[in-house]
Every structure is written in C-alpha cells, then in structure tokens.
Amino acid sequence: MPTRQQVHNFAAGPSPLPTNVLEEAALGLLNYEDIGMGICELSHRGKEFKAVIEGAEADLRELLQIPDNYTVLFTQGGGTGQFSATVLNLLAAHRQAHPVPAEEFKPPILDYVLTGSWSSKAYAEAQRLCAAPFPNCPSFGEPRIAASTKSSSWTRLPSKDEYKFSKDAAYIYYCENETINGIQFPHDKDSEEGGFPFDLIPEGVNLVADYSSSFISRPIKKFEKHAIIYAGAQKNLGPSGVTVLIIRNDLLIDTTKIQNELGCLPCLPITYEYKILSDNKSLYNTPPTFPIYVSALVLKHLIKNKGGLKGLEDINREKSQLLYETLEKAEKQQKAKLVVRDSNARSWMNVTFNIEGDSEKEKKFLEGAENKGFKQLKGHRSVGGIRASLYNAVAFESVKLLCEYIEEFCEL
Ligand SMILES: Cc1ncc(COP(=O)(O)O)c(C=O)c1O
Predict the structure, then answer these.
(1) What ranges do the domains of the chain cover?
(2) pLDDT in tens, 116-131
(3) For a tag site, which of 157, 161, 206, 315 has the least CB within 10 Å?
(4) Strand partners, 184
(5) What fold, for 308-409?
(6) β-strand 228-232 against 206-210: which pairing, if any?
(7) From ligand 1's centre to the CA of 361, what distance in Å?
(8) Which of 221, 235, 319, 335 is flagged as catalytic?
(9) What pairs with residue 177 in β-bridges?
(10) Which intervals hold domain Aminotransferase class V (predicted)?
(11) What percent of the chain has pLDDT over 70?
C-alpha cells in the first residue's frame, strides 16, 4: 500500500490538494477551531462560516487583484452549470439593453470560440437553451461559431484571421484551457502571435471565459476585458462541489423582472441568477460549506507559502517546460508524440501525448508508471492517450521524476 508521499498524482480533476491543507481540513472537519463541532456541522449563516466565506473572497481578490467593479460568488453546479447560467443571465442583460417591443424582437447572436471539447459542450448548451419554445416563434438567441479548430482535431488555436465576431453579439465565449485536449491560450503572447484576440472584440460586447482548469495557476490575461470569468474549483482551488464566479457588476440582472416586463427570454432557474446569488452574498441557499472551507485554506496556503500568483506562474511555467522538453526529445526519436502540434497552444496544466508504437506500448507505459507511483495519467475516455495534469498542488519534484521515467521508458 503506497503512502501519500510515494504517490505522484497527475489527475485532471478532481486533482491533488496540498497535504498541509488536507491535514488542517481534517482537523476542522472534526473540531473546527476548538468549538467541539466540525465545519460541516455548522450553520452556513453562523459567524464561523461567515468568516470562512468572507476570508475566501478577500484572499481570492488579493491573489487575482480583482477590481472593485466585479462581484465574487461561490456557488454550485460546476462548470457545466455555468454553460447554462452564462447564456440565461447574458440574454437577460442583452434584453435589458435592447428593450424593443416583443413584436420587434430579434434574437441576439451569441459568439462561441470552439477550441476543444468543453467550449463545444458550452456551445451545444447555448443551442439547446436558445431554441424557439414552439413553432413560428423566434428563438431566444442565435449561437454562432465565431472560430473553430475542430477540423484540426483540436490540436491548435485559431489564427487571428479566423475569428469572425459579430458587432452586436450578446457575448463572446471562450475556454481559456481545454482540459481534455491540452490546449491553452498563451498568456504572454498578443493576438498576432496566437494569443486570444482581445483587440478584435467589438465595443460593448461582453466576454465570457471558462477558466475551470487554469484558474489561479497564473495571471488572467486582460482581466478587465472580461464580463464573466468562472471556474469549477476541483483543479487548482479545492474539492469538487464549489464553482467560483467573477462577474462585472452591471451584469447582476433581475431576470424575472426583465422577463415579466419585456418577455422573449427563457426562464432562469432561481439558483442560477447572478443577482440573487449576489444579493444574498452566495448564501441564497445552502452553499457547499466544506468545499468552500477547503478552498479558503488553499487560498491562504497559496498566498503564504507559494509566493502568490507570481510564485505560481513561475513554478507552473517551469513544470510544464520540463515535461514538454522531455517529450519533444522523445518525439525527435519517434518514441512519443505530443497531441498539440502548435507549441504556442500547449497547456501548462494538461500535457497530452501518446507513446509511439502499438497500443500495447502505451499500456505498458501506463502500467510501469502506475507501479512507480505516477497515478491517474490515462487520457480522457473520449480521446485516450496520456494526460499529465500539472495543477498547483503537483510538486516540481513529481514532474522531474515523471520525466526521468519517460526518459527511461523511451530509452532517451
Ligand atoms: C474547462 C472545463 N470546463 C468545464 C468543465 C465541466 O465542469 P464540471 O464537471 O464541474 O461541470 C470541466 C471539467 O473538467 C472543464 O475542465
């Protein structure tokens, strides 16, 4: 039976958490701050949990330098919940900004940038929610593909001239890091060099970003160009069960009022309305108290022990560089192949590759890895192959040992 110290966990999510945080959380689960009750046994409206959630927000604001005109919310439903919530809230915001009578209503365009499986799922959900409720009536919105790299099997990002944004879209949506395929927008490049084309966003169009698998791993590029940034916690922040939303304040819309007064909007489930969540400081209904508690501990740990966002950026760059260099060496000798062909588009968080040769070879690689304590390296079930996820809690030493194993297995 391996101990925690003997295991190197490269899971894509839920992912490893810092051991010292889990030790503290285990104590808090039994007896939070010596009050004789565990954190999960306390009211979410009591003073203890209030301090936890307020501390988490303050630390997140400090870590990401979140401007005052953005609201931070902790909610449930995961990234998938936000595929729906972003559509419904932003359709309401667009309707509020265009209060024409129902007879003159024209469904707004929703522009989606498709770079992998998750942005494609978000697009599919927008199509589902926008569909006309009955024949001979307009749809609620028109989701469109503003750019797509599907024809490359998601092995690159769009080039600047491939983006076609509509000037009056209700919003533009993108996924900053595609966890399954291992594609990420480079944060140190501008749009000419393959970065996200922030300069092409039409004036006044809202930008939505799914940051689920790269949240707090490095700075968010052009933060203030975004209207909504969201992330499921279970990669870099905490246990699954809590979703973090960062929303520009003008998008906290009373959707029921807009629907009643103007119509032409789909109905929005109450716990998905950003204004309701914000008016109730993330406590409209019972929040996932334990995941929020652990996330709060992780944030403190990142600020105190990991050098904040700059420290995380530096170490995450180093980890991914080392692994990509090793795999490039293996690729030159036809022993392995990186999935993402465009090196600008390679994810710092999810490194995807194949072992060259027949399928037995890859199986052998994974078995050997497992025996040496390198866990959860198998690629996503939809694509196969190998995926090493290098989230914040994965130590540099673990990546170094994995690289040594790759060198040994591939006889480099
Ligand atoms: C980038 C991205 N977006 C969305 C999701 C969906 O998140 P959830 O499973 O929390 O609904 C995932 C899940 O891994 C993801 O990696």
Answers:
(1) 50-299, 308-409
(2) 999 999 999 999 999 9
(3) 161
(4) 177
(5) Aspartate Aminotransferase, domain 1 (3.90.1150)
(6) parallel
(7) 30
(8) 235
(9) 184
(10) 8-92, 150-402
(11) 100
